[in-house]
Amino acid sequence: MTNESLFQEALTHFPGGVSSPVRAFRAVGGTPKFFRKAEGAWFEDEEGVRFLDLCMSWGPLILGHAHPDVLAAVQEAMREGLTFGAPSRRELALARRIKEMVPFVEKMRFVSSGTEAVMSAIRAARGFTGRTHILKFEGCYHGHADALLVKAGSGLATFGEPTSAGVPESVASLTQVVPLDDLEALEKVFLMYGEELACAIIEPIPANNGLLLQDLSLLKRLRELCAKHGALLIFDEVISGFRVGPGGAAELYGITPDLVTYGKIIGGGMPVGLYGGRADVMGVVSPDGPVYQAGTLSGNPVAMAAGLATLERLTPAVYADLKHKGAQWAKAFERIPGLHCPHAGSLLWPLFQPGVKRADRVESGAIAQFNKLHKLMLEQSVYLAPSGYEVGFLSAAHGDTELAKFEAAVDAVAKGF
Ligand SMILES: *Cc1c(COP(=O)(O)O)cnc(C)c1O
């Protein structure tokens, strides 16, 4: 089967032929690859071509594809049943490990995706504070819940406008949107709406519109403003959590949010999300409190096993190694003329433009250059995320062999720039 013939059939089943939009290659052009198996840093498509993977399923696979210990844990758990719909000890084991790594998570609730974690955290924040408005930053992605598919409105007001059809304006208008890298705008929103805000949510390391590394002063000031105005601070660490260090960005920056959301790595490749944090805030969640939130497959034992096997292997040595590799691979990327590669731990963002801190500052020329890079790298059997606004992910399985392969590919494509 060719990728093309599979994609033609997929188009008859799914909108755009895919189960999630960015997979469709619309941004970069060409036909998406259909993958049949993967191991370590490599995956193989249905045509038998092996690719060095720099997308890694968008983040969960910090140990690499099909890590033997994770597979073994999943197999052991699944032999005992796929789901109980009742409490099981594996939830406790994962919770214990999470508390070891992130001590400020006093209480938590497992869900099945990052979107669900964020949506639920916001409901809890609203329930706890009795307030309705929320604040988000333009350029941060928090999944596809209605309240967060919102961009800054025009004019003086900062009330959000929907970025998706199907999101009511009345819902979007409860979300205040401020730009990243703009302390003044932040101060102003708190001045105007501070007492109405249930929470502010931010990716402390914004990594969904490129890697938009912020000055620490922004997070510090946000923490102060939230405390001053009685709004909760939510860190969305669905990407940065368990990736930039055991305690995520919160630990890295020494800033503690009231609530945090996780996804991706926490499930080790299985669908798991989590929201948690202050015990008093989590106390509003049902059945302890009045905020309803539930899930048929929440705390799924097989998914818990994959998450635990993953987190157990994330030692300080693994993090030190990932950080070292991040710098190494970014440097290798920068052999391409004009390419800049900001990085944080094992997150990389190849962009043909320096020093970008806001998504709206990315130039269309830089994205056009990325699209060319994507195509040339694919020809070298290196798989980059199919959009210039997406970051690259390294894993523990990206070793010296992989780096050598990557450098050879980089040198081959560099001539085209
Ligand atoms: C991926 C992501 C989400 C959404 O998680 P899903 O599991 O795709 O629903 C939310 N927030 C951030 C920061 C993410 O990177």
What would you note in describing this structure?
The protein has 417 residues and is of the alpha/beta class. It folds into 2 domains: 3-66 and 315-414, Alpha-Beta Complex (Aspartate Aminotransferase, domain 1), CATH 3.90.1150.10; 68-311, Type I PLP-dependent aspartate aminotransferase-like (Major domain) (Aspartate Aminotransferase, domain 2, 3-Layer(aba) Sandwich), CATH 3.40.640. The chain contains 13 helices and 16 strands. The chain has helices at 3-13, 68-79, 89-101, 114-129, 169-172, 183-193, 216-229, 248-253, 279-282, 301-312, 316-333, 364-379, 400-414, and strands spanning 35-39, 42-45, 50-53, 107-111, 133-138, 150-152, 160-162, 175-179, 197-202, 232-236, 259-262, 273-277, 343-344, 347-348, 382-383, 392-393. The strands form 4 sheets. It has a 7-stranded mixed sheet, with helices on both faces. It has a 4-stranded mixed sheet with strand order 1-2-3-15. β2 and β3 (50-53) form a beta hairpin. α3 (89-101) runs parallel beside α10 (301-312). The two termini are 34 Å apart. The mean pLDDT is 97. The structure holds pyridoxal-5'-phosphate.
Q: Which radius of gyration do the C-alpha atoms yield?
A: 21 Å
What is the number of strand segments? 16
Class from helix and strand fractions: alpha/beta
The profile of the biggest β sheet is: 7 strands, mixed
**Biggest sheet: strands side by side, in what order?**
4-12-11-10-9-5-8
Terminus-to-terminus distance: 34 Å
**Can you write the helix and strand succession as a string?**
HEEEHHEHEEEHEHEHEHEEHHHEEHEEH
